[in-house]
Amino acid sequence: PIHNIDIDDNELPMSIRCTHEKMSEDGAYILENGVHLFVWLGQSLPQTFIQPLFGVQCTQQVNAERFAITGETPLAQRVRNIIDTIMKERTRNMRVSKHVCLAIFVVCSIT
């Protein structure tokens, strides 16, 4: 999870399993599988996280087609550093797809 990172820390955030029980709609996560890297933003992510990174008010305003952390804030720099560190630690063959995947939680029942 990157929504609760300490901007003064230099370590990578704790890894968690990518399951719906572990991820929340008000959270932000870096997902990577050795081939692709994604930044997943929950629909209810607070403005206090979105604004410093992307310069917009909510996740719906983040340009998912042209992902870029545009902010020049300590939080933006910390997230960029995390992404850079992950990319350096993985193999040279890792194809990086910096796509923002806006999370939409759908509850359905099967009858």
Give a summary of the structure in a few sentences.
This protein is of the alpha+beta class and 111 residues long. The protein contains two helices and three strands; from the N terminus they run ββααβ. It has a three-stranded mixed sheet, with no helix packed on it.
Walk me through the structure.
- The chain is of the alpha+beta class and 111 residues long.
- The protein has two helices and three strands, in the order E-E-H-H-E.
- It has helices at residues 47-54, 74-89, and strands at 28-32, 37-42, 99-103.
- The chain has a three-stranded mixed beta sheet, with no helix packed on it.
- Helix 1 packs across helix 2.
- The termini are far apart.
Q: What percent strand? A: 5-15%
Binned, the helix content reads 10-25%
Order of helices and strands: EEHHE
Oligomeric assembly: single chain
Rg, Å, rounded: 14 Å
Q: What would you call the shape?
A: globular
Please give the number of β-strands. 3
Poorly predicted tracts of residues: 98-111
Main beta sheet: 3 strands, mixed
**CA-CA gap between termini:** 34 Å
Mean pLDDT: 78
Strand-pairing-aware structural class: alpha+beta
